[in-house]
Amino acid sequence: MNLSIYKYMLLCCIAIVAFISCSKFDQINTNPDTTNTARSEWLATSMLGSVTVSDISTQKAFAQPFMLGKYTIWKEGGPESMQYNRFGRIDFNRLTVLRNVDPMIANAPSDVLKNSYTALGHFIRAWQFFQTTMRVGDIPYSEAIKGESDKNIKPKYDSQKEVFKGILNELDQADELFKAGADFSGDIIYGGKIAKWRKLVNSFQLHVLMNLYKKTADADLNVTGRFQKIVAERPLMEDYTDNFAVTYQNAAGSCYPWSNTPVQTNPFIIYSALTTTFVNPLKANQDRRLFYVAEPAPAKINAGGLASSYDSYLGLEPSNTMADIVGAYNAGNFSDFNKRYVELFNAEPVGLLCVWDVKFLLAEATVRGWISGVPAQTHYAAGIQQSMKFLVNYTPVAYRHGVTMDDAYINGYPSTAGVALTGSNENQIKQIITQKYLAGFLQNCDYNAWYENRRTGYPEFLLNPSTNLNTPSTKFPLRWLYPSTELTNNSENLDAAIKSQYSGSDNVNETMWLLK
After folding, report:
1. pLDDT interval class at 37 (50, 70, 90)
2. How far is CA 488 from the centre of its chain?
3. What is the DSSP letter of 156?
4. Inter-CA distances, 138 with 125, 249, 354, 513, Å
């Protein structure tokens, strides 16, 4: 993705809005040969940027989803909310971008391109509604974003089941319309290639369906039937070049989110460290990805340890007290992010849905008996291998700590003892989710690792009542709270939704429909 193009197109959209909002005098004196309508490709660029570039924060905020997912700890100031499981209110701002869907479709320059832009609109809607409902439960869906068209500024809340039905249907429509469309302009992710987009929308639907795994008995949703049909009949992500990802350039504001370079400074790089939750499984199974994503502990190197030795890498338990963490940090008994994440402006693309996620979904579905024909081990191995190939491609030799992942290692590793799927179905699910977690390091910024733990219990996060900031401290929270703006502007509908789901209590410990 070219972030400079995204910024330029975004400025164009802003300029169009300013143009259309001018005074009557300005309208009379406007050049009739200029446009006062935002073109479809401009709106596509703006919306795609909103759900990708703008959704991936920088500096400390970039690390926060990974604090919640127990990949990293933070040693700055007092206890960090995300690290210690304190949830507050979200907003519905990610839904406001959907106002541009209808104009994007209406301004399509041809019928065949209208198919493509309509398909893109369905995907963006599905993506944004999914991310929102995953955080709180019931949300406005059928009446959402109709303030201008229907003068409805107080939309009703749809049940989470109805929201998921809508998301699944929109993704079906997106695939059909992309199939009937043509390559289009304004796409900052895949360059408008509809073949890539079909892979994404179908892979994303598998992700949505797996989150419905407790609802397989619901005939309305037809979870397993839909899953089987997609796998049998539609294109899916095949390798890491299909990732729904943002790439970076050497320009201010366009560098990798954690980088600290001459054009983009990051003063927060001194506060991070990796966790035992992430480091220990890599060490236990002699996984060479560790050397590509981490730095050895300073204390180990100072004592004569080798950067190429697993023994030189130390994680910190994320539920420990801040005093313990700071003490270990000051003693040099910790591993940090690999220096390439700091020193390189293009350390690696940041994916929001990646091919390894899809391979692990297929492995899990096979273990659960949803699909057959290909062994779960085959899908599982492909997920690990794609993660490794991605790291090899984006980690220069100077940042590998003298350790190589060649083809022989990559091809053989998934079958080694302790890594290959084995035992009960539940144990295999644990192995699959653990590998998905390891592959997701500094990827999947929309809290995917935490959602997977909430869904399956894997990987296991240690609950420490003495440091847990949730109330009660003996529980992990399950959801965020509804936006304060909804309390003010749409209280009647919000109150009805809270009553129907949570017995009237908008509480972070309440269990949404998806998890029952």
Report:
1. low
2. 30
3. P
4. 16, 39, 27, 9
